[in-house]
Queue: 2 jobs
Job 1
Amino acid sequence: MSLPYFEYLAPQGLAEALELKALWGQRAAWLSGGSDLLVRAKQGLVSPEAVISLKNLSPKLSGLREEADHLRLGAQTTLHQALNHPLIARELPGLAEALSAIGAPTLQQRVATVGGNLCAQTRCLHYNQSALWRAGLAPCFKLGGELCHPGGATADRCRSTCQSDGAVMLTALGASVVLQSSAGQRALALSDFFTGQGERPQDLAPDELLTHIILERPEPGLGTTYIKMASRGAMDFPLLSAGAALRVEGGLVTSARLALGAVFAAPLVLKTAMDPLLGLPPTPENLAQAAAQAGRDAAPFMIENHSAPAAWRAQMVPVAVERALAKAAQRALGGV
Amino acid sequence: MDKPRPKQIFSAQVNGQWVELLIAPQETLLEVLRDHLELTGSKEGCGEGVCGACTVLVDNQPRRACLTLALEAQGLPVLTVEGLAQGGELSREQRSFIAHGAIQCGYCAPGMLMATRDLLSRQPTPGEEAIRRQISGHVCRCTGYAKIVEAVAALGQASPGEDRP
Amino acid sequence: MSPQLRYVGQRLPRVDSEAKARGAALFAGDIRLPRMLHAKVLRSPHAHARILSVDYSEALKVPGVRAVVSGQDSAAVKWGVFRYTRDQVLLPVERVRFLGEEVAAIAAESLTAAEEALALIKVQYQPLPVMLNVWEAMAEGAPLLHDDHPHNINVHVAINVGDVEQGFRESHLVREDTFSAPEDSYFMTEPYAVVANPLADGSLELWMPNAAPHQKAKALANALKLPLGKVIVRKCAIGGAFGGRSDVFPAEFIAALLAIKAQRPVRLVYSREENSLATRKGHGMFTMIKTGVDQEGRVLARDITCYMDGGAYSSTGPIATSVPFLCMEQCYKLPNVRFNGYRVYTNKPIGGMYRVHGRAFASGVDLQLDLLAEELGLDPLEVRLKNARQAGETTPTGSLVQSCGLTECITKSALAAGWRAKYGKLPPWRGIGLGTNSVQTGFPMGIRGGSSAMVKFNEDGQATVISGVVDNGQGNDHMLVQIAAEVLGLELGDIQLISADTQATPNDPGSYSMISTLAGGGAVKAACQDALAQLLAVAAPALQAPPQDLEAQGGQIMVANDPDRALPVAKAVRLALAQGKPIMGRGSFFPRVDNKREWLSNPFGQLSETFSFGACVAEVEVDPTTGRVRILNLVLSQDCGRALNPLIVEGQFEGGAAMGGVGGMLAEEFQWTKEGRCLNPSFLEYKVPLACDMPAMANIIVESMDQSGPFGAKEAGMSVAMSAAQAIAGAVANAIGRPVFEYPLTPARVLRAIQEKLAGLPAKGPQG
Ligand SMILES: Cc1cc2nc3c(=O)[nH]c(=O)nc-3n(C[C@H](O)[C@H](O)[C@H](O)COP(=O)(O)OP(=O)(O)OC[C@H]3O[C@@H](n4cnc5c(N)ncnc54)[C@H](O)[C@@H]3O)c2cc1C
Ligand code: FES
Ligand code: FES
């Protein structure tokens, strides 16, 4: 399968990169590992006139820096580097789990980047297909059309979902991102960065580059985990996933964040289902109640846009959430 | 073709030899290896990053050649399956795959061998679980993976099953 | 002859593996010829449409375009495996019947130019109603995909042996169940590719992954109206077939037409998606099974009706419709049996033979037998043993089973898996299951049913073997070389192999009916024995011993029991040359089958000369909250006659279990949109198992030493693929305490069954 023609630009430094992007705007695409971008380009889902390679920026934009009250993760950090970083492996096992669940070692962990994972497109069984597949088919919302194939006649918007494992877990961790352009820089919580619109899933201006991910320093009593449900043990995007970050202090839950993947165009943050946990001990009954509420909250989002039936995926929401909460609580209490 | 489509010079050290050629900027490393350099050992099984048959090492890191622009490998060492044997002598990975019957149709073998080289370079005695995990990014439709796992395990002298639950 | 075998039974590395390990083996898509053009195919975006017009005038103007073909160039040549199934116009003129069907093609100097030009071909379609399953297609008033086939029934196989109704009346217990599964697919790692090269003398050379070079050549010669000798199918490395490379595809016809038109070599390489849609796929299936047993669990009668979704054209339809039934009747004693198999045309890609063809058939037969055993309070293992085929018996449709190690396979697998300690005694949500199966070694194919081989000795004492057998990856090349080395007393490295090249090699049926070892190996063995006899005759005077006292070993001809009297083979060869009697052996093997047997008109008589048998025991654990099945262990066994090379046999077992069992029973299925688009033609969404998904496997090789097979060998690996699927289906039913009737056993299907059980609902099969 060959790629359509585009120019290849490999700026030497950040300033040059941002200037180039300001110049090309939407006509150019950033290229990190390419494992999302180039597949879509081959399928004709995107046709950039130029790609701007970030390879020369990698040394500056990768790695984890510990600062006074937070962690700074370079967007160009490969999944492999990130999940093997001692601090992440030790104190944020949920993030390590999410990143190691992406694809498989030789595809993802040595090439694909954390930034690329956050900026990857939402997906749909009816969108991530070839030109032959689309021939004779009206374009869907995500391709600029006016319908959603799995959504059916009543769908008024794109129903593609965020299947980026890293994005879901980082959202659960309450991370934010630093976006930079030649005009300046802004920070955005991931819950704002992800727009919830399948047509345009990230709030990222054409001239902006995601340079860093900012994470709160893991506090004592924090337990994190990531549960991924997929058909195979590797090389599969999630059919459903749950990232949980639970903080337990003095036997009581003081913070409970949970995000679902593969359900909505953004990682779906289940606040109303988690809030009742605050101030309660993380007993199996309390967690099960929160999980049941999560199931009810997520149900309206389920449609036939994945390879597993929506009915099964809906049933799996409380299961995945309960498992994620239980594991996170166990970790919060000092278990592994 | 309204606009000119300028080509670019690509140079890299492929299997120990410097090569320099004129390529289109959107060409993948797989196209350059197979079509320009006639190194057809690396295979295209899907072209979409899934099957792993196209895997080569770029700067000692495994890469899906089908999803890697050749220009991303500019100036770097590239190792393909053709470069494993040294002076005609098969590499130990190749010998082990042959001896253990890990090659049936052989279409997955180039990628599997490169994944093996990568794993052993980081983890000289991987257990079965680590081996399975490493090669889980590579589809083999013939062997059921058992003989491939044995072939890799034999290289690390770890016995199969050691770290499997 | 030497009683001591040096190679047979040894674990030998394959002779072809070094080239593959080096990346030096050339697959069709690796071949590049001087001045070669690159081709691309334009495909129908509709699952069913009338072609109103095709206009490629603009495409011709694209710089670099050298040839274009469409239906108008095809002379409406029709292809069919049988004379009576010629239903596929290789480049359709009037109608397309599935999404992805070939409409036109371009050859250009570069792929880019070909792609650009493709976009300029204007095709006008008039969409027609789409039928995407057998029920829609058979419905009253449904449009006909092929006018001469009422109700869109492509093939009807009807078999009725004994008195089924009487058998049911005599039965102590009768059950009726329906099983179903959607299409599965091959997903061989190599996508399809063809290189066609027109030669100066008017002949045409071709390379493509194929399972029968001689059959491809014959069909293409007919289609191109060329003499058979002018269509040369050459050998190349092949990245797996599993049944999916067996018959003739438009790809080679198109590549040939383009090459002839442009008078240049043309290479056409399919994308993964094209390989999925435009070669072959498996059949979707509904199977209604009714079985009656006596009090001891002996089957007295069985009645099966099966509907297969065959897709748009016949392909190997009559065979595909029959084989699941035949495997069953070979495996089990059946005094009274009736079978009605219908293959139905639908607007889907073409269904072909598959290594694990009929999971919703075979698994249903075994599962139902388990259910009957349970109702009778019997151990399913005992019931299987009671019904298991024995050597010397004749199948309902009249095949004598000359060798059969089925009972040994069942008992050994059960023992190794600890059946008696586990069946009925496992903790909750754990289960154990048994699958048994049998496959053919070849079919009656008339004049094309046999294989022939030649062997010539070279001056240096080495030998060249010439055989039509093709290697799809399973190790046939090695098998031939090993047999030749064994017979000729040479090293493996002393044998050169010329094979699967229709210009050079004699006819062979092809490697798709599990016949290669029996017929191809048998022919090479005979040719080598012929050459050896010539060699010994020449050596006898020199060694002053009668030929029958001589043997060949280690490159020497020696007098038995007197190793001091020896003559190097090279010397004997030269002696023969000096006498004007060059050593050239020939041999052939034509299986003893009933050539009057015909798939539809006369499905009776000897089907294959011999049959292989296998059994698998699976142990699984089911997560009752998700429905996910984890396979804990698979014990694989097969009576392969004799394991010529256990290393290769084990590889066939393990690969078969991955494909049929782990993938086929747990995950693999095509999904479709209502317009007939395949939702998962890719490796990403079609879930072939990965290394991390595979369970522990144990192999048990059973050897019945078949009287006709070379050194006793029959076939290896086929029956394991299916019996693994059957075993897993049984184990899951055992684990959750109720049968599941729809396959594959994805978490969603298993969970639904568990929940229906907990809700006290009856277990019921799929609704037609
Ligand atoms: C076979 C296969 C399996 C996969 N499995 C999974 C999986 O299980 N889970 C999963 O989450 N993902 C999976 N992926 C998707 C993908 O590999 C990951 O999302 C990966 O992390 C993307 O990183 P990348 O560096 O390769 O991104 P790229 O493809 O380089 O970039 C992705 C997108 O982000 C943009 N971009 C990249 N970097 C920046 C930046 N710094 N600032 C702004 N925009 C940027 C690009 O223009 C592009 O649009 C899979 C991909 C393949 C091919
Ligand atoms: S061809 Fe590159 S991963 Fe399949
Ligand atoms: S050996 Fe055929 S795909 Fe691995």
Job 2
Amino acid sequence: MFMILGYPAPLMFGQLLLGLINGAFYALLSLGLAVIFGMLNIVNFAHGALFMLGAFVAWGLLNFLGINYWAALILAPLVVGAFGVVLEKAFISRLYKLDHLYGLLLTFGLALVIEGLARNEFGSSGVPYPIPSILQGAANLGFMFMPIYRGWVVLASAIMCLITWLVIEKTSIGATLRAATENAPLVQAFGINVPRMITLTYAGGVALAAFAGVLAAPIYSVNPNMGANFIITVFAVVVIGGMGSILGSIVTGFGLGVIEGLTKVFYPQGSSVVIFVVMVIVLLVRPAGLFGKGA
Amino acid sequence: MLEVRGLNSWYGESHILHGVDFDVKEGEVVTLLGRNGAGKTTTMKSIMGLVPRREGSVTFKGAETIDLRSDLIARAGIALCPEERGIFASLSVTENLMLPPVIAPGGLDLATIYALFPNLKDRAGSQGTKLSGGEQQMLAIARILRTGAKLLLLDEPTEGLAPVIVQQIGRTIREIKKRGFTVLLVEQNFRFAATVADRHFVMEHGRVIDMIPNHDLAANMDKLHTYLGV
Ligand SMILES: Nc1ncnc2c1ncn2[C@@H]1O[C@H](COP(=O)(O)OP(=O)(O)OP(=O)(O)O)[C@@H](O)[C@H]1O
Ligand SMILES: [Mg+2]
């Protein structure tokens, strides 16, 4: 059998792919967190719950309305984004004048409520969501067989990250967003409705989480814990990338997914903690994170 | 065009403005002079809705703005060039220039702006805060000339700049006055102020204590020296 560094190549590539898939979710989730943190200055602990909600909305659309996966990929983020508008207007916007800690506690509470309601309704084991038919099966890449759906997840996540990055870095809307992140009162004094922009930014960030949730639905069973399972690792990714850094969250998300996957090959016992080890090292060497600006 | 009556402002517990009264007529260039800490910047910010608490009356084109949010005041046609310039580090020069939305017709077009400030064209792609102090000041002024706002609040645009750049800013102010803009200018340097302004208001301890028309400035030099402590 073909070997790399003394390990069987298929094992290596298999774990690499798994790592990329996890990385795809880390990237999308930490990207949304970064966008929200930059503008609202709160750490959105409800992010995992809204990721889960995205998966459940996709499941509901399919089972109650017969709306397929492709439409859900657009509709579920819109639905969850609209829910985000309500959350921001009703709760989060009341906390901007207070310490960050209040935003963290509030969104943590929201996460518990949303996940609790889902558990109450669906139980802990969750519900299945089928892989759309054209993405079923596996492709022979020569060196390995790749389940097509998993390849699609990596691709879709990369495209969505790229689009988000382009919007923020290259468009005038993105320029306004960056400016408001730096100095919101001045941007408002130029005639821009900053409170509305903050609401829409929150909606956009959670819509990204919901998009990730729909991508995740056919891989993991759609269940109330799916967000909580991811979110702790995602927070580590955000810290490593640098709070609020857009590019940082994308690169770090994919990169750490791969590192985690490879650790499963070389030192399986370490795979569940490797990201946190990286986090500790990064915090010691560069407290602002790899891509963070200043302290 | 702008009438300020009994304007009071606070930062938290500190009561900074104690009944500021003055007015600016359409097409005028008017200065606020006064020592450090007199409340000139606070007056500008209060007009723009950028202080935590303000009372009294600020009418613009006859409409009361004292209870408006700053974005609505901007959309009524007032634009601020802040004392600290407010150039955004995460935006390029062009992005900084294009950031304020156009709120009315009648602003300068890009060609005119680049003719007034050629440096901005040469440095279009640079990071905003990589510009020199003088260039950043030009960018901060240029940015509000585009929007169509007819009343421009310029807070110490010449502060800390070389004489040649001060002259360029002086030319710019005379040019925009010719084009019908109205300017409220904060200045420490009344020699510069005298070259551009129609009237001067003198502030002290959060009040306007005197008004001197520009053509009476020479006759009032002694008084002015006392006010400004120079
Ligand atoms: N953000 C703030 N919080 C509390 N007090 C402030 C704040 N900004 C200004 N002040 C106080 O308000 C007073 C007036 O300040 P302001 O900046 O309006 O003065 P100024 O006339 O513009 O002075 P300068 O010529 O130095 O720019 C000062 O006593 C200052 O200490
Ligand atoms: Mg000042």
